[in-house]
């Protein structure tokens, strides 16, 4: 709109950002593929295979934090966006915008972290770009990564396949990433001793897809946390989502810090978590496979798809009452991924 300015909260993953995407980028670019707003675009079949393509940009303060850094974050984020579409990540690009004065040693550490993480994820960085801007024009370093993967068989994963009675599963504790970044900033005098969950999820996802035939939807709950992701899933749908507060895995350290600072763990960013919606009969298989994987030891069913409350996320609280879980307009904490 005329006179309206971009605020920091527009990049937080909340309602401001979603409205901007839907009202500006989607209608102007006018792409049927983009309109779906999936984590990755599924392109036309080439040689009998569906090509999955995604891109993301990363800015985090500080650039090194417990359990990760901006380089590891960039690789994991792009790999995970491809994997949750049921595709095998293969190739990545790496574009860096660096502030004048950044130490070469710091850059080398970040690049080495990217290489190590890419190798662990089984992907190859095949192209890139490097730019330097004047001091003060960018905060140390920004990274963009794009990724390509393939789906070798017909994968029925998407919001259209979600059914009433489906179970909602997450592979472990939520909120570790955002609290790790917060503690690294040393703004609140908190020494949390919490590591980010930043990790490539493609191995875990590949395992569960081999074990279960009725996985209907997957998404990694990054900015805005699981509350935002669940609202993205249910928006405009004829079903609702019911989650149970006592089933949602949160470490005691994260829960304590949230109570001190007034944060809601449901809205905390994650970088190594996947929400899986699958058929009721397949939930046990998915949980069993997850729990055998290093990234799924605390996997649990946190809720189910319901016929009632269409288009809404409802949570049964520990006291037995029910409340609507809405999407935040902005963010509890900016610049965490």
General description of the model:
This protein is 30% helix and 25% strand. It has 337 residues and is α+β, with helices and mostly antiparallel strands. It has two domains: 38-151, 60s Ribosomal Protein L30, Chain: A, CATH 3.30.1330; 159-324, Alpha-Beta Complex (Phosphoribosyl-aminoimidazole Synthetase, Chain A, domain 2), CATH 3.90.650.10. 42% of the residues are buried. The mean pLDDT is 91.
Task: Summarize the topology.
Blueprint: H1 15-29, H2 32-35, E1 41-46, E2 49-58, E3 64-65, E4 68-69, H3 70-83, E5 88-99, H4 104-121, E6 124-133, E7 141-151, E8 167-170, H5 176-185, H6 202-211, E9 215-219, H7 225-234, E10 240-244, H8 252-261, E11 275-278, H9 283-292, E12 300-306, E13 313-316, E14 322-324
Overall shape: globular
Going by helix content, strand content and strand pairing, the class is alpha+beta
- Termini separation (Å)? 27 Å
Determine Rg (CA atoms, Å).
19 Å
> Could you tell me the strand content as a percent range?
25-35%
> What is the overall number of helices?
9
User: Going across the major beta sheet, what is the strand order?
Assistant: 9-11-8-12-10-13-14
Give the number of DSSP strands. 14
User: What's the oligomerization state?
Assistant: single chain
CATH class of the largest domain: Alpha Beta
- Name the CATH architecture of the largest domain: Alpha-Beta Complex
Question: What is the fold-level CATH name, i.e. the topology of the largest domain?
Answer: Phosphoribosyl-aminoimidazole Synthetase, Chain A, domain 2
CATH fourth-tier homologous superfamily of the largest domain: PurM-like C-terminal domain
DSSP helix fraction = 25-40%
